[in-house]
Amino acid sequence: MTRVEPRDPEFETRVRESFARQALMRTIGAELARVEPGRVEIALPYRPDLTQQHGYLHAGITSAIADSAGGYAGYSLFPAESSVLTVEFKINLLAPAAGERFVALGEVVKPGRTLTICRLEVSAIKGERRTLIALGQQTLICLEGQPDRPGAVLKRATQHRRSP
Amino acid sequence: MTRVEPRDPEFETRVRESFARQALMRTIGAELARVEPGRVEIALPYRPDLTQQHGYLHAGITSAIADSAGGYAGYSLFPAESSVLTVEFKINLLAPAAGERFVALGEVVKPGRTLTICRLEVSAIKGERRTLIALGQQTLICLEGQPDRPGAVLKRATQHRRSP
Amino acid sequence: MTRVEPRDPEFETRVRESFARQALMRTIGAELARVEPGRVEIALPYRPDLTQQHGYLHAGITSAIADSAGGYAGYSLFPAESSVLTVEFKINLLAPAAGERFVALGEVVKPGRTLTICRLEVSAIKGERRTLIALGQQTLICLEGQPDRPGAVLKRATQHRRSP
Amino acid sequence: MTRVEPRDPEFETRVRESFARQALMRTIGAELARVEPGRVEIALPYRPDLTQQHGYLHAGITSAIADSAGGYAGYSLFPAESSVLTVEFKINLLAPAAGERFVALGEVVKPGRTLTICRLEVSAIKGERRTLIALGQQTLICLEGQPDRPGAVLKRATQHRRSP
To answer: pTM here?
Structure first.
């Protein structure tokens, strides 16, 4: 994607503070490696307690870092007072998730006032070798005027999607 | 789906042993709640260390239990000496994942010798109330003759998908 | 899904008139077989000029009737003055699309003010036999206050998704 | 993707002959614009009889050219005696499909002996302006030893996915 101007000059602080509130990222040991407008990278060292039955990283964890990377790539372009929720994503697991560490990249392909579409990539790194292990596509929704804090969004986000 | 006859009469033991080898499921506190031919349920109590920035269950964890439920629903119909890998899945997050506990259901829609397609559902339970929070669709591949053990699949699974 | 009350009592007329404006449906010979609140069926007789290289119905045509069935299932629950656009869909092609005719079913799983999620199914019918050939999942967006007419939506729909 | 060596030196002829057997492509006026190893482009002029209710190209036709472009991108890397079937695809419709003509690009991201994963893109062209209108991801299956002819695949393809 061509470089996009963020609407909020404080986007990086906003993204880093929100990421710090994602308890799961701390639990699994993931870190925000890179924050640019419309492009975010998350790094995760391999840990045996995050694996599936063959000892590879579980697809749910591959998805977790991919989803957060895409979500924050979108959120970096959102206005200051807003929240991001994932509407849906699709992910192809291209190869067994074997490596010493993993890097998830989220990149905005199509920003929008309401919906934002991202491309997701996860690579496994072992020594000098980097292998693409997952490729995804994600749809995000921007909830304007809804602060990004625990509990704050529950009511309106539910309302947003309630039955007619 | 209409009830399917499993090829391996020991399917439940095989599924339970493989699930027990998924370190991630232990790490997050997930349990195998139900194992039937072509239909598996996984239960997960809410834990604040598995959340995203608003305090809801992280979409990656919702995906992890959905992916494992679908994977084992497929695996229950596979032959005795085989492994299962997820090719891809797509998931819609229908409502914020707020609840006391979560139940993921994986159900085989189309079994096949090589590929098996599953429907995925995740519900949040709060008191008497059960809310559908995620809906997905998953493609699995059966690796025949490949034991379901740590390390065992790496070589052949990679080979399976290598470049021409 | 449990039966939903449509907001617009004239939903069926509105759906049928919009379907009649979909020139593609006429071109391929598709018909609106059933219109209920949140549930629409489209029927398509087999035609050799709609096939892929093996003589089966092309996946794009399977997708076209599935997408329209889901779109109108959602649209049946939308308010009177509105338009529907597909945000995205995912479809698994479960079996070769061989049959005398095909029926696509779209069903709303989660209605919402802005976004609506549908389940898609396509079956092939040959004599007495009905085979499920495709299964999908779709996200729709409701454009309120935008009339469902040729040309009318272009400006605002584009604006809706413009860059920040 | 880095350039891939095709296994079959006659890949272009094989792709062009198979495309010529896709009756739907002829019906809608689509043409094979470019065939490279692992990369195929299909061009389609706008036609009012292929539209949805607002006069844009119907998402099913956008999907049809995207699916064929990806399918032939994969098929270009398959061995000489083989067939290609689409397992599944997911597509995001990024903007209304308004233009004088459309170009679908299919590109192999991960080739494999059994499964091949492609990236799909569709652009609308109006005068000098080119707009990305759809982005997708596709899983293909290679049926080795199965000739790419009408009727030929039916039996084995069905068998491939039959119940256990």
So the answer is: 0.94
